[in-house]
Amino acid sequence: METEAIRIGVIMQCTPLSSRWQPFQWLPIEIVGQVPELNAPRCLRNDPADTRWLFNGIDVTLCSSEAEGYFLNISAPVPCWFIMWRIEDIDGVELAVPKSVTLSYNEAARLMDGGERVDTLPASAEIVERLTAFTHDYYHPEPKRKHKKPSFEGGEGVAKMARAEGDHHGG
To answer: Where is the composition biased (Basic and acidic residues) (predicted)?
Structure first.
């Protein structure tokens, strides 16, 4: 089961660093609602100390197969968006381009395990409410099973093993 897509935009920010190994740092700074008239990336601020780009038209769909990942997200102290991005050249400018946005903790973990860069932003109360309702409908944890007591806790099984061990070693 999938829900209707949540269409969003991500604002990415580039700030200079005082490091000779990495002269600047890109980070997502805000999730915004879809801006209808904008399809291509748009520079919002072009300042040497603070450059910002809006990437619009990103769809986030809730899937029942990711319900456990949503549960883990809403169970966290601060539920969040997970933004996977890569550096790309767009019209001769290197930009940090969001490639995937999810609300699933598990999906984000898989992306990071695959070597992708994933950053987080806090989710709004409205999104957390929507995610909680979806999770309530589709997340059904596996029931806990009783474990059989192992033989090393005593009983006839241990005595039998001791006798067998004594017979084996000439005891």
So the answer is: 162-171
CA angle at 49 for the pair 48 and 51, rounded to the nearest 5°: 70
For residue 104, the tally of other CB atoms under 10 A from its CB is 23
pLDDT digit string (tens) for 67-106?
A: 999 999 999 999 999 999 999 998 898 999 999 999 999 9
Which one-letter amino acid corresponds to residue 77? P
Whether the CB-CB separation of 6 and 70 falls below 8 Å is answered with no
Q: Is 152 inside a domain boundary?
A: no
Containing structural domain, residue 120: 6-138
- Is 50 within the bounds of a domain? yes
Tell whether pTM > 0.70. Answer: yes
CA angle at 20 for the pair 19 and 24, rounded to the nearest 5°: 55
Q: What angle, 0 to 180 degrees and rounded to 10, lies between the N-to-C axes of helices 67-75 and 105-113?
A: 100
Residue located via tokens 């456990």 = 68
DSSP string of 32-100? EE--TT--S-EEEEEETTEEEEEEEEEEE--BGGGHHHHHHHHHSSS-EEEEEEEEEEETTEEEEEEEE
